[in-house]
Every structure is written in structure tokens, then in C-alpha cells.
Write a structure and sequence with these properties.
272 residues; Annexin V, domain 1; 67% helix; globular
């Protein structure tokens, strides 16, 4: 019953046209009901349920991510990152997550979207940084060894992690090529009218399409739109994070640090 329901939902999302994707009531229903259901089924120990949950998330990412900035962040942190970073996660679950990430990392716009909308946003988590760190550990074989995986499984996991990292680098080169050719060109924030259907997730050892949708997630219209401004925004966020870390150890030192960086005033009202 649950598997059939998830399959029907996946069919709806994969066949959603422009009208449905822009329907306010449908988007609200996705936020209030579907995303909550995905957060629960995304930790299911049943492989079929987990696989369908990932497929649903990829469909949302391909067609509705412009509306789901907060929900996407939660799914990445609570499902993707949590499974990759937890030693008790099964090899099969981690393998399916890696396949999903392979699809995401294959698209230049999606990779840039993650960095711009989260790592450069003061109120969001550093998803791109955390993702690269996790993939680096997988490429080194540390994650698979924790699972007690078979040698061939460990090798496959390491190769897949390395492929994801290579895809990210290729995407960054591809995305930045136009910026070098046309330095005045603003950051591309387009959303195509008809993204391609997301293919189903292949299981371990199977072959499947890993092409990714090329839609843009721009959930925060106040974000800057040039590489230089992104760099400034990211640097400012790093300073804030360093100040918070110092504050957690010693509040007075943290306040002093932020004041020295001109991010916090000296009056009682500003400090409060």
C-alpha cells in the first residue's frame, strides 16, 4: 500500500506540467504533506520505500525546487548527509544515496544552486561544503570500511564518490566558462519550462541514466548575482560562523571578535 502510494505520487510529479508546477495550492500541499511524508520515509529501512523516497525527492528537485528551499535543505541534512555520515547506515542505503547525488552533481546549474542558495546564505547550512567533505571521505574508502563492506563493494563506493567529485569540478568549469568569456554576464537564474523526466534510481550494480534536470533553485531573491558578490557573501558568513564558535566557548571573546570585524556594534542595544 505504501509502495503503491509512493509510486503514484512519483508518477504525478514526473508528469507535472507547467500549470501544475506553478499552482499555489499544489505547491502548498507538497510543502505541508509530501515533504513531511518524505522526511519520514527517507529513513525507512525498507529498500523499496527508501528508493522511491529518493526518486520523489529528485523529482521535486527537478520541478519544484524554486519553491522548496527550506525543505531541500532539511532533506539534504537529515537524509543524504545523515546516511553518508552514519557508520550504522547499510551499504545499500548509502549506495542509493550516492546514485542520487551522482545525478545531482552531473548538472552544473544544480551544483551552483546548492552553493549559492545555501553556502552563501547566512541563514542556511553549508550544504556544498559538507557534501564535498562527505564525498571526499567516501572516495578515500573510509565510509565503506566502516560498514564492513565486501572488497568489490568498497571499490565501487570509492569510485562512485570520486566520480561525484569529478562531476562537481566539471560542473564548476562548465558554469564559469561564460563568466570568463563574458565577464559582465550575470549569474544564470533561469528556470526552463519543461525539465526532462527524472529517471528511476538504479540499484547497486545496475546501469541507468544519470542525467540531471537543468532547472534553477533561486529561493532567495536578495542573493547577489555576480561571482564577486558571492565571494563577499561567503566570506562574511565564514566570519560570522567563526565569531559564533568563539562566542560559544567564551561570549566576551566572541563579541569582541565580531566587533573587530565590524559586524557588531558596541552599544548595549546592538550587542543584545
Amino acid at each position: 500500500s505504501k509502495i503503491l502510494s509512493l509510486q503514484l505520487l512519483l508518477g504525478i510529479l514526473q508528469n507535472a506540467g507547467p500549470v501544475l508546477r506553478s499552482n499555489e495550492m499544489f505547491v502548498i500541499a507538497i510543502k505541508q504533506y509530501l515533504c513531511v511524508a518524505l522526511s519520514k520515509n527517507g529513513v525507512s529501512s525498507v529498500p523499496e520505500v527508501f528508493e522511491l523516497s529518493l526518486a520523489l525527492f529528485l523529482a521535486l528537485l527537478a520541478r519544484f525546487k524554486v519553491h522548496l528551499k527550506m525543505q531541500i535543505e532539511v532533506f539534504f541534512k537529515e537524509i543524504f548527509m545523515n546516511i553518508l555520515e552514519t557508520s550504522s547506515s547499510s551499504f545499500e542505503h548509502k549506495w542509493m544515496v550516492i546514485h542520487a547525488l551522482t545525478r545531482i552533481c552531473a548538472d552544473a546549474q544544480s551544483v551552483v544552486d546548492i552553493y549559492v542558495n545555501y553556502d552563501c546564505d547566512l541563514s542556511a547550512a553549508n550544504l556544498f561544503e559538507r557534501l564535498v567533505n562527505d564525498l571526499s571521505k567516501i572516495a578515500q574508502g573510509r565510509q565503506a570500511l566502516e560498514l564492513g563492506a565486501l572488497p568489490n563493494q568498497e571499490k565501487s563506493m570509492r569510485i562512485r564518490g570520486l566520480e561525484c567529485l569529478v562531476s562537481i569540478l566539471k560542473c564548476m568549469v562548465e558554469w564559469s566558462r561564460d563568466l570568463y568569456i563574458n565577464p559582465g554576464t550575470p549569474v544564470d537564474q533561469h528556470v526552463p519550462t519543461e525539465p526532462p523526466d527524472p529517471p528511476s534510481l538504479p540499484r547497486y550494480g545496475s546501469a541507468g541514466s544519470l542525467s540531471s534536470a537543468n532547472s534553477s533553485l533561486v529561493g532567495n531573491k536578495e542573493l547577489p548575482d555576480t561571482p564577486e558578490q558571492f565571494e563577499v557573501q561567503k566570506q562574511q558568513k565564514e566570519v560570522w560562523e567563526a565569531g559564533i564558535e568563539i562566542f560559544n566557548r567564551k561570549p566576551s571573546k566572541g563579541i569582541q571578535y565580531l566587533q573587530e570585524q565590524n559586524l557588531l556594534g558596541t552599544s548595549i542595544e546592538e550587542v543584545a
